[in-house]
Specification:
Mean pLDDT: 93
Distance between the termini: 31 Å
Low-confidence stretches: none
Number of strands: 16
CATH architecture: Sandwich
Number of helices: 1
Shape: elongated
Number of domains: 1
Strand content: over 45%
Radius of gyration: 18 Å
Structural class: mainly beta
CATH class: Mainly Beta
Helix content: under 10%
Length: 205
């Protein structure tokens, strides 16, 4: 029998000065802490693939299970979204890949783009495998919110998959997003032969 049982709940009100409150979020079912300045901390959301995605990514393709569920607190400045994408490709794939960070309810390319980053280096026609790390940090959250994103292509195959990119979004309305998803889509170009073997994603604050 469990020693401690905690009822799931929405983000509690800000506690008094010199106090923090711990809770399990009713939206993401993840453990969180809210401090006396109203900031929520913890690993607030998580997702992982259970099978490979052999979609080739010749057009903009939503990465399966990359969607991170936004907790009941909504988006908050300082949140960090992270994706570890394990990918392979055969020969071909010579374009510069485009990575789009999206928010919405569909976990699909129809979700709103927060920012799209075009790799600064084109792929080369060679078989390879790689770990690609994608991150999105929220600098401000408002009707004119701003995110900062980066893509890091692992050094083991950086000359074949590209080099990565960093960028700052245009202003975007980031309010009222509780219960929606922040996820990732990739367009590797018309000649692409990608397979995403595994994805691990998490939201921390």
């Amino acid at each position: 029998m469990a020693k401690v049982t905690i009822a799931n709940q929405t983000t509690p009100t800000t506690p008094s000065s010199a106090y923090s409150a711990v809770f399990v979020d009713s939206t993401t079912k993840k453990f969180g802490q809210i401090d006396d300045s109203g900031i929520v901390h913890g690993m607030l959301s998580r997702n992982v693939t259970t099978a490979g995605q052999a979609a080739n990514f010749t057009t903009d393709t939503y990465v399966t299970n990359s969607g991170l569920l936004i907790p009941s607190s909504g988006l908050v400045a300082g949140m960090q979204f992270r994706w570890w994408v394990y990918a392979t490709k055969s020969t071909g794939s010579t374009a510069a890949a485009v990575y789009t960070f999206r928010v919405g309810t569909g976990q699909a390319t129809s979700d709103t783009s927060i920012i799209a980053l075009t790799d600064v280096g084109a792929q080369t026609s060679a078989a390879a495998n790689v770990l690609i790390i994608c991150t999105l940090g929220l600098r401000t959250v408002s009707a004119s919110g701003v995110g900062v994103a980066a893509v890091l292509v692992g050094p083991s195959a950086s000359s074949t998959f590209g080099l990565g990119k960093e960028g700052v979004s245009s202003t975007i309305d980031l309010t009222g997003k509780a219960g929606q998803y922040v996820g990732l889509s990739i367009n590797a170009g018309a000649s692409a032969t990608w397979t995403v073997d595994h994805v691990y994603a998490e939201l921390v604050a």
